[in-house]
Structure prediction request, 108 residues.
Amino acid sequence: MVPPLMIQPVVENAIQHGLGPLDRVGHVWVNVTEEVHQIHYRIEDDGIGREAAARLADQKIFRHRSHGVELLHERVSLLNDLGYPSQLVVMDGPSGGTIVDIYITLPS
Prediction:
């Protein structure tokens, strides 16, 4: 079971900010695995990466502030408060792009 709006904002950001500026076809991969007492969601893209996306955002005259990832952090915090230890990890991919890992502990 995927808690509401956990994966969607990450995929949307990958498409809009990571793949949108590319001059080639880009990819987004969504993997879900069940580990020992835990669900692991990994969203990975081969886009321009967080640093380049931040530079492009700084150059825009009209800045749109995305709240999707901010809300995702709040959802992870809420899951922790409800007794489902969860973690959100965002990192640069090994050859560009971005990797987002979401870990949610399953009830016993």
Remarks:
- Residues 4 and 75 are 9 Å apart (CA to CA).
- The first strand starts at residue 28 and ends at 35.
- The chain is about 35% helix and 30% strand.
- The mean pLDDT is 87.
